[in-house]
Structure formats: structure tokens, C-alpha cells
Amino acid sequence: MNTSPEDYLKNIYIVKETVGKVTTSGLAEKMGITAPAVSDMISKLAKSGHIKNIPYKGFELTKKGEETAINLIRKHRLWEVFLVQELGYEWNKVHDEAEKLEHSSSDELITKLEEYLSFPEYDPHGHPIPDKQGKIIKQKVIPCTELEVGDIAEIREVSDASQEVLGYLTKVGLRLNVKFSVVEKINFDNSVQIEFENQKIFLSEKLAKNIYVRKSS
Amino acid sequence: MNTSPEDYLKNIYIVKETVGKVTTSGLAEKMGITAPAVSDMISKLAKSGHIKNIPYKGFELTKKGEETAINLIRKHRLWEVFLVQELGYEWNKVHDEAEKLEHSSSDELITKLEEYLSFPEYDPHGHPIPDKQGKIIKQKVIPCTELEVGDIAEIREVSDASQEVLGYLTKVGLRLNVKFSVVEKINFDNSVQIEFENQKIFLSEKLAKNIYVRKSS
DNA sequence: GAAAGAAATTAAGCATACTTAAACCTTAAT
DNA sequence: ATTAAGGTTTAAGTATGCTTAATTTCTTTC
Ligand SMILES: [Mn+2]
Ligand SMILES: [Mn+2]
Ligand SMILES: [Mn+2]
Ligand SMILES: [Mn+2]
Questions:
Q1: Which of A89, A104, A109 sits opposite B103 (nearest CB)?
Q2: Using 50, 70 and 90 to split pLDDT, how confident is the model at B217?
Q3: Is residue A40 part of a domain?
Q4: Residue B10's CATH number
Q5: Total Cβ atoms within 10 A of residue B159
Q6: Structural domain tally of chain B?
């Protein structure tokens, strides 16, 4: 499937947020395309003023590029809210639908949708929804892998990329805002064992990395 | 903007419905592209079994092609209902939005949307909405140009292609289900004068052609 | 039934987002 | 300071939906 230039900007923004820095290969990996494709598009987006690029050195979004990225993220997350809250979708099915809808809705439509949904602040995975002006709440969260034994934490965000991860979380009863304590941590494989509602759950590194929490101890 | 193969099928179906027969040039005109582009796509869609084509003679949808067309029309019309009924759009603004949304929504999403909207039978312009099985109500309607002086008629359908026409209709108070009588008909320019709710309105041919009615006298 | 006119198709080429293969920088190790 | 490794960019070429120009086919007219 063909990706739009907008999509590159969005993914640059998100990779920067979650990983810390964006590289050609990192972005290619995330988007499921090859490095030359990314390199190509970066040049184009640099020409159009959405990206500041120094070949072989690195690139970053300009103000203009960031605005475009945030606007697309806004559309994505509002659609996700609609799908879950109004149409009754499971939270692990909405990402792919929103990925398409975000490109097919005018700003005006999104303004109306936002009002229809009563201005939600977070999407179904706990991600903040940018407002019309592009302002976005930045939550201070850490991945479960950074917790220590004895920590008490509350789930604030869950990565929405993997359907399997989200499906598994639902199965074991983990949702947003659930509070738990860390029972055991195995440095060996970066897994953690947690307890909540009187049950113990084992989180592999892969799982733990996708759950973002706020410590409350 | 690039049109998808699906869109050709949809437009073939609609032109067939409204004009009676579909030609390469007719379709090109409707879709705002050139005849060679249509000719090209027809060949491709013939290969994939959506169209039966005899070069230089004509083409028509196969069963498979019609199913695809109807499914897209279904998506289009359900989105239009959503935009008007839920988001409060004017009926002359929804066509363009739906034109994009129809390509970005899975069958599953549309199933859920249809239920959410309580299974509407008609879209905001009076066009019937195909059900999940592709069954579609065929209304027997005639354009206003075919009315005679003295006829009493009720508006059943309005073409949704022209924003201006729809905007004008709203301005003069013409909506779906409005009943009127034909006061005068000028064969000269194919215009008609109608009366409803104690006001007389003049409909040019261009206008009259876009309003479909059911005679009730 | 030949020729003119109209419509459709084919040909050649463009734009865009991709691919693999080759060339090019940068960096880190010896 | 060289060199080797890795990541990045450029080169060359593909797929797709378009364009204009040329060609083919059909239809109408005489
Ligand atoms: Mn998402
Ligand atoms: Mn999300
Ligand atoms: Mn429409
Ligand atoms: Mn409509």
C-alpha cells in the first residue's frame, strides 16, 4: 500500500517521541519500507519545507512539518475514539481503521467529530489528542521495563501498534488506569511479574516495553 | 487526484442508472478524466472479471463488478447519512467528504456504522442505501423536466453532484418529500414553474433535471 | 459502397511511491 | 592514519493511474 508524504511526517514525530531519535533506517523499519524510499521522501519533504535535512547527518521536522504531523495524529486518535466509544470496536482493532480514515477526513469534519465526541482528551490507548491549535498534553510515563520490585504503578498508555499485545492485555484484564505492584523482576530477560486485583501476571520484555505507566509510590 | 478502479465501477453503475447507457466518453466526462484513461481502465477491469468488454462496441458490469460497485455506493451513502444526521452537516457538503471516506472504511466498519445509524433506507438526497447483501430499493422517479402543467408531484431524490444546486434548493425551501404542483411549463427552454406552500418558484432546465419526483395526481 | 466524421483505442510519455544494486560518507577500530 | 563496517544516498528500473498525439474502428451520409 502506498504511503503519503504526510505519513512520513507523522511517523517521524512518533518515533522521535517514543525512541528519542529518528534515523533513516529506523523510520524505514517502522514504516515497513526500505531505507532508500525514506531517503527519497526526506529530500522531497525538505524541499517543501517540512523537514530540515543535512544529508548523512540527520533530519528533523520543521515547525511546518510538525504541525502537519500533529494534525494527522489528531485525526487518527479522534477516529479511534469514535470507533471504540460509538461503534463499539475493541481497542485492538481500531488502529488499522484509523490509519486509513485519517487521510480521508477534512479538518472541518474532524472539528465536528471532536465536538460530537465531547472533546475527548485521550484516545483508547491513553495517547493524548492534540487540540485544533495543535496543542498536545505530554504525559510523563515510563515503560514497565524501568520499574523496580516493590513499585506501585498505574497504566497510562499502551502502544497501539500490535493487535496481539492489546488482545493479550484484554485477556488478562489489564486496561488503562489499572494499578498494580511489581512482585518480581528478572534482569536476565528483562521480564517483570506484577500483581493486581489479587492475581499475578508475568510480563515478558516485549509486553512490558509496550505498557507505559506512572509510578505512584 | 488519482481515482481507484473501484471508482470506475461505481460510476459505471450510476451513469447506467441515471443516463441509461454508459460510453467511454460519457464516463470520462462524468469522472473528469480523459477517454483514454477510461479505455485503459476498462481493459484492466475486464481482465480482472469486473467488466464485460467488447472493444469499440461497449462494456457493462459483470455480477462481480456490480457487487463491488454497489458495496462502494453503500459505503458512500451511509457516510452521508452519518455526516448529516450525526455531525450536523448540510446536505450539499457531504458528497465530497463521503467520496473520500468510502475508500477508507472496511466492510466491518460499515456494518457497525449502519447499525449505529439504525439501518437508514435512504441517504440525505433520497438515494436508496443498499443493504449488506447488496439489495437495493429501486424507486420509480422521473425528473421534473418530464412533468406537465397541472401535475402534482413529490420530491423523492435530488442529484448530489452539484453543491450549488443543492444550496439553491435549500435557499428556496425545496427539500425531500415536498409536494408541489406545476403551474407553467415553457417548452422553449425546458423550464418549469411550480407552486408549493403558497409560493411560486421558477426551475431552469438545469435545476429541473436534478430533481426527481413521483407524480401523485 | 465510398468517404467523412465521430468515438474508441493504442502509443508514448509523465508523476509518484516504491524496489534492488551500486556508490558514497561517517565512524570506530587497529 | 588506514581500513573496515554500517548506515545513507544515488542510480536504475517497476507499477499505476494519468496525459496528449496518433491510429483504428464504427457509423452516418450521400
Ligand atoms: Mn493508533
Ligand atoms: Mn491509539
Ligand atoms: Mn453522494
Ligand atoms: Mn447522496
A1: A104
A2: low
A3: yes
A4: 1.10.10.10
A5: 17
A6: 2
**Side-chain-facing half-sphere of A39: CA atoms under 13 Å:** 7
Are the C-beta atoms of A128 and A121 separated by less than 8 Å? Answer: yes
- Residues of chain B with Cβ-Cβ distance to A89 below 8 Å are 112
**pLDDT tens track for B143-185:** 999 999 999 999 999 999 889 999 999 999 999 999 999 999 9
The ligand whose atoms approach the alpha carbon of A162 most closely is 1
In a domain, A34, yes or no: yes
- CA dist B181 and B200 (Å) reads 10
Domain that holds residue B29: 5-61
* Residues 6 or more apart in contact with residue A14 via CB below 8 angstroms: A30, A73
The whole-angstrom separation of Cα A199 and Cα A184 is 13
Average pLDDT over residues A99-103: 97
**Ligand 3 mean position, distance from CA B122 (Å):** 12
Q: Flag whether pLDDT at B34 surpasses 70.
A: yes
CB < 7 A from strand D, the residues are A 23-26, 35-36, 38-40, 42-43, 53, 55-56, 59; B 2-5, 33-34, 36-37, 40-41, 44, 56-57
Mutate which of A6, A79, A100, A117 to disrupt the B interface (most B C-beta within 10 Å)? A100
Evaluate whether residue B113 is within a structural domain. no
Helix or strand (DSSP H, E) at B157: strand B152-158
Sort A112 into a burial class: Cβ within 10 Å, 0-12 / 13-18 / 19+: middle
Long-range contacts of B85-88 (CB under 8 A, 24+ apart): B85/B117, B85/B120, B85/B124, B86/A116, B86/B117, B87/A109, B87/A112, B87/A113, B87/A116, B88/A112
d(CA A96, ligand 2 centre) in Å: 10
Terminal Cα-to-Cα distance of chain A (whole angstroms): 46
Domain CATH for B195 = 2.30.30.90
For residue A135, being part of any structural domain is answered with no
Q: What angle do CA A90, A96, A97 make, to 5 degrees?
A: 80
Cβ proximity of A140 and A197 under 8 Å: no
Count CA atoms within 13 Å of residue A95 on its CB side: 15
Bases of chain C within 7 A of a CB of the protein: 7-12, 17-22, 25-26
**Tens digit of pLDDT for each residue in B120-131?**
999 999 999 999
pTM as predicted: 0.95
User: Which domain-ending residue is among B61, B76, B93?
Assistant: B61
Residue at a domain's end among A18, A46, A61: A61
